[in-house]
Structure formats: C-alpha cells, structure tokens
Amino acid sequence: MFHHLSGVLDVPVSFFFDDLPERMKYPPAAPEDHMLRRESLGLMRHYYCISDDLRRSVYELVKAMGRASDM
After folding, report:
1. Which end of the chain is more exposed for a tag (fewer CB within 10 A), N or C?
2. Higher pLDDT pick, 46 / 25
3. DSSP conformation class of 26
4. Rounded mean pLDDT of 30-38?
C-alpha cells in the first residue's frame, strides 16, 4: 500500500514515517520462539513417533524435570 502510494505521490516510502517518534520507527525485538528452533521441531517429531503410553510417561518425566529445575 505505501509502496503504491509513494509512487503516485512521487515520494519515498519513508516519507510516511518521518514524523514517527524514534521508538516507533523500529519494532521491538521479538522474544525467541523456542518452538521454531530446529532442536524443538526434531524433538516434537520424534516425540509423536513413540507409543501413546510411553509418550505420556516421557511427558510426565520432562514436566517433573522442568519443575525441579525451577527450584
């Protein structure tokens, strides 16, 4: 939209953002999404390959380990 409008008005796209406060010109850094990491995706893929009973046991084990590491 801004690209098209800037062509019609013969101004650079940045023209539409010149009056923004400095803090609004750049988006804040997004927190790292651990679920998008290659390691996480691999773990999930392998996790769902195991049987339901074993998967539930693994889930409970990892959940307990996570709680223990929070202490």
Report:
1. C
2. 46
3. S
4. 81
